[in-house]
What does this fold into?
Amino acid sequence: MIRTALLVARKDLLIEARSRVLLWQVLPFGLLSLLLCGLALGPAQAGKSSAAPGLFYLVMLFVTLLMINRSQGVEHAAGTRESVAVLGLDPAGVFLGKTLALTVELWLTGAVIVGGAVLTLHTAFAGTVAALPSIAVALGAMAAAGTMYGALTAGIDGPATLLPVLTLPAFAPLLVAGERSFSSALHGGALWEWWVIMLVALVGYLAIGVLLYGVLEDS
Amino acid sequence: MTTTVLSLRNAVVMRNDFPLLSGVDLDVHEGELVVFTGANGAGKTSLLRLLGGLLPLTSGTGRVGNVALDDEHRRAIRRNVGWLGHEGSFYQDLSVMENLTFAARALERPLVAIAPALVRVGLQDRMDTPTKALSAGQRRRLGLAWLLVRRPSIWLLDEPYASLDDAGRAFLDELIGDVGRAGATVLLSAHDPLRSPELTPTTYRLAGGRIVERT
It folds into this structure.
């Protein structure tokens, strides 16, 4: 399972390195979304700073949906699905590999968007750095849930529009907990209860994906 | 006596209440070359996909090798067959070499098997070319290279002659002949009967999801 996971993750990251969709399409979209949200808040610096955690996770939600569709799209291109299916890869390994690759891509994107938040929304640098571990966990859990739902919707008509509808309930606790922990890191407040939610979601989504990914793929 | 490696009894495959296959009986022996012909929508691709474990059997029974063709064992069947689809294959953004390296590693085949396969299909000068930059015929050759790296005992080729020029057709005829002589079983779909006099297949004509003629 681990060998398959590493093989699939390496392949997915190589595809991104070759296609540069993340660099030239997803990142500019994310940064522009953040910039527009900042402009919509007006010139007041204090308002932008307090809204920054929520805006960050809103932008990451959009970015994650794009990248899930991309991650599953390469598997379901004409002819690719059958060719890869007959390789007989362990579905749990495929799930973990795709989740790992998506997590790495989300971390890279998140790092750039966080940098954009510091520059355009004037979030405190020290508080933003303190929020990075919680952001990493939240994005990892979103990657796990997104990989699962991506496999489910990939075989259905209109996957790009169905995916947000299905994933939002799964993402909701992560978005709330992520936003609260980011705010707590910036402005002070309790952290541990938000960490519990994110860690439970991460472990839960990983466990469900490992158990069900093969069924979801075949469905 | 030759061994039966594939068998179907009254195989029915439904999708959205539409029968893709509506009662197919078939026996294929080890080393046999089988061609499925028929018009578009006759069920050729569905039959190959069923035999490759890529489509579930709705009713009836079947075996591929020693594995029953049911939901529980479909994944096991996939590992025993090689598949070449008519739409091309593999990851478009990866190069020829990267695609074959991924497949070889997934199948735990030695990477040294890649270079001879590329030479055999004539893609040795395209190793670093992204797959999306290949012509349709070259993509077909890449799929054949993958099968050569894999060396499955059962080859399922969906419209393998499509997009091939005369030289490509002659090459494929020769390859199929070699594979058969090495003991592999080859099943392929085609709109027309094979032209090569060197190949002596069993040909089944399909219509409406059934076998209507055997020659």
Q: What stands out?
A: The first helix of chain B runs from residue 44 to 51.
